[in-house]
């Protein structure tokens, strides 16, 4: 069963997540990180940046693979996850260009791009620590309700509620793309260790469905109960339905 750590607030979640990431980097030469976007991990990237600037942490030799990217957004679009990751993290730390990866949102052939992404993860030796958020509907990455547990990196359609939840990340008048490339549930479950972050009352129902309901594709995050090394770091508000 996932290890559940309920902390006082978002700051405590950030500190613990940053500590776990630093520990994997210290323990694993050439550590491979699985990274997530969204609002929840923003403070974690800020903390990692600060620690790197203070000389407490180096990302030299670390490799990273992000969970997902919107389809049809060029990397330089301000709402792409490429832009997010460069702005929040990559451009501020000593992770080498070429050592960080996201799915190719501009791929002509998304199926082929998904296959190549799987190969690249495998060639890097697999993911040592995968950071995850959780959608209000229980999604992980962009694996929306119904995503098969044996899914791999592929093109997916976004749920209307996900498009609405992420619309504020887009410039005025622009709506998020309808599709994305995302690691699959099986891809995520292959990570050696998984850390899921959930903060705020909006995530309370999803966390309860993930942990208390049946293990079923209707709640993609419930698949994590099949993994032997999952830590959930949440605040009291996100834990309020448990
Ligand atoms: C987004 C991302 C997920 C993220 C989730 C929650 O759509 N694709 O990777 O974990 O939704 O986002 P937030 O942290 O902003 O609530």
TrEMBL record:
The active site is at 68 (proton acceptor), 137 (for ring-opening step), 139 (proton acceptor), 144 (for ring-opening step). The keyword Cell wall biogenesis/degradation does not apply. PROSITE patterns: GLC_GALNAC_ISOMERASE. It catalyses: alpha-D-glucosamine 6-phosphate + H2O = beta-D-fructose 6-phosphate + NH4(+). InterPro entries: Glc/Gal-6P_isomerase, Glucosamine6P_isomerase, Glucosamine6P_isomerase_CS, NagB/RpiA_transferase-like. It comes from the Bacteria. Catalyzes the reversible isomerization-deamination of glucosamine 6-phosphate (GlcN6P) to form fructose 6-phosphate (Fru6P) and ammonium ion. This is Glucosamine-6-phosphate deaminase. It comes from Tropicimonas omnivorans. The gene is nagB.
């Amino acid at each position: 069963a996932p290890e559940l750590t309920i902390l006082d607030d978002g700051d405590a979640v950030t500190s613990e997540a940053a500590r776990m990431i630093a520990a994997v980097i210290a323990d694993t030469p050439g550590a491979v990180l699985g990274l997530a976007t969204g609002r929840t991990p923003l403070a974690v990237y800020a903390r990692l940046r600060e620690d790197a600037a203070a000389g407490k942490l180096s990302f030299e030799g670390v490799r990273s693979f992000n969970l997902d990217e919107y389809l049809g957004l060029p990397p330089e679009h301000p709402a792409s996850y490429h832009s997010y990751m460069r702005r929040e993290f990559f451009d501020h730390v000593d992770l080498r260009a070429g050592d960080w990866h996201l799915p190719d949102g501009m791929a002509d052939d998304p199926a082929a791009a998904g296959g190549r992404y799987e190969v690249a993860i495998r060639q890097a030796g697999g993911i040592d620590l995968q950071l995850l958020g959780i959608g209000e509907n229980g999604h992980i990455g962009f694996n929306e309700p119904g995503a098969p547990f044996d899914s791999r990196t592929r093109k997916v359609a976004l749920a209307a509620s996900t498009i609405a939840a992420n619309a504020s990340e887009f410039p005025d008048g622009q709506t998020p793309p309808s599709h994305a490339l995302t690691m699959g549930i099986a891809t995520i479950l292959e990570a050696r260790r998984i850390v899921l972050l959930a903060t705020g009352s909006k995530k309370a129902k999803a966390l309860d469905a993930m942990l208390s309901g049946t293990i079923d594709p209707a709640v993609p995050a419930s698949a994590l109960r099949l993994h032997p090394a999952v830590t959930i770091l949440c605040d009291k508000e996100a834990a309020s339905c448990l």
